[in-house]
Design a protein that fits this description.
mainly beta, six-stranded mixed beta sheet, five-stranded mixed beta sheet, 2 helices, 9% helix, globular
């Protein structure tokens, strides 16, 4: 059995996902943060959207749906700080609506091949009750330290600094 951890739980075009709060810097609706697409270098992955201004800080903006080779969502930004070789790297993931912040215990195992891309980032599944819904949903726990490859993390650092 996995340990319980406080997480931000959100929708992502067809499924529900959670990220541990220890990585989360801020949550914003899509309207509260300004996306600057002009900072994307030529040849960058399509999932890299540019940078997004969240408060006084710029974060490299990634479409989480596109990173996972699935449909995009466009309701919120989950701003994270991931550890890079030179220190913390500000990353913002574009997601669906936020369901809440709650303790999560991923007790259901996942097969990493369940996802088309980046299956190593998914650490398990759990049931979550969503307000207004009769049935519980199955959600997946995402470990963002395994979400981006080293070159993508380095690119994120560059894009966030522009």
């Amino acid at each position: 059995m996995s340990a319980q951890e406080l997480c931000v739980v959100f929708e992502l075009a067809g499924f529900t996902c959670a990220v541990p709060t220890r990585f989360v810097a801020r949550l914003e609706t899509i309207y509260e943060a300004e996306l600057r697409q002009s900072v994307v270098p030529a040849g960058a992955p399509l999932a890299l959207l540019g940078n997004v201004q969240v408060g006084d800080e710029a974060f490299a903006a990634w479409d989480l749906g596109a990173l996972l080779q699935g449909p995009s969502a466009n309701n919120a930004w989950v701003a994270l700080r991931l550890e890079g070789p030179a220190g913390p790297v500000p990353i913002a993931l574009r997601t669906g609506r936020c369901i809440g912040v709650m303790p999560v215990r991923p007790e259901m195992p996942l097969v990493s091949t369940l996802f088309r891309a980046r299956g190593q980032a998914f650490r398990g599944a759990f049931e979550v009750a969503v307000a207004g819904e009769r049935e519980q949903r199955v959600a997946v726990l995402l470990d963002p330290t395994y979400l981006l490859e080293a070159a993508e993390l380095e690119l994120s650092e560059h894009v966030a600094a522009r």
